[in-house]
């Protein structure tokens, strides 16, 4: 098994681990609620948010924090993917040189 296969195999395992640990909810599917019926449908007027996965309730301020954390997580994940791509290209270049 080459270094490249090991690297790709490890990436797969890490993804599976993430899927198998639902205990840590990322609260990515929040449902808004409104105190004033006139505001229903306006997300910026929501009085609070409830996670449809774990039913935890959040204030609008907490929801903003979650959205920021979520964006940060996505950015971090993209950086990891870029890093893996870079490593893969390096390994491919190395394997070509060895042949
Ligand atoms: Zn949740």
Protein architecture, described:
With about 100 residues, the protein is mainly alpha-helical. The chain has a domain at about 60-99. The protein is about 55% helix and about 10% strand. The chain has helices spanning about 5-20, 60-99, and strands at about 30-35, 50, 55-60. The protein has a three-stranded antiparallel β-sheet. Strand 2 and strand 3 (about 55-60) form a beta hairpin. Helix 1 packs antiparallel against helix 2 (about 60-99). The longest helix has about 40 residues, at about 60-99. The radius of gyration is 21 Å and the shape is rod-shaped. The protein starts with a helix and ends with a helix. The model has no long low-confidence stretch (mean pLDDT about 85). The protein binds zinc ion.
Record the SSE blueprint:
Blueprint (H helix, E strand, L loop, with lengths): L2 H17 L10 E4 L14 E4 L5 E2 L1 H39 L1
Antiparallel strand pairs: 1-2, 2-3
Bound molecules: zinc ion.
The description of the largest β-sheet is: 3 strands, antiparallel
Assembly type of the chains comes to single chain
Quick check: average pLDDT?
86
Radius of gyration: 21 Å
| Low-pLDDT windows of residues | none
The number of strands is 3
Labels describing this entry:
99 residues, mainly alpha, three-stranded antiparallel beta sheet, 3 strands, binds zinc ion
Give a quick summary of the entry.
The chain is built from two helices and three strands, in the order αβββα. The protein is mainly α.
């Amino acid at each position: 098994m080459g270094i490249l296969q090991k690297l790709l195999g490890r990436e797969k395992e890490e993804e599976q681990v993430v899927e198998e640990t639902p205990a840590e909810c990322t609260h990515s599917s929040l449902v808004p609620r409104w105190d004033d019926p006139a505001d229903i449908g306006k997300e910026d007027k929501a009085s609070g948010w409830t996670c449809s996965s774990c039913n935890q309730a959040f204030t609008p301020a907490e929801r903003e924090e979650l959205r920021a954390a979520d964006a940060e997580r996505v950015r971090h994940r993209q950086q990891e993917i870029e890093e893996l791509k870079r490593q893969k290209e390096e390994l491919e270049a190395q394997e070509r040189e060895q042949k």
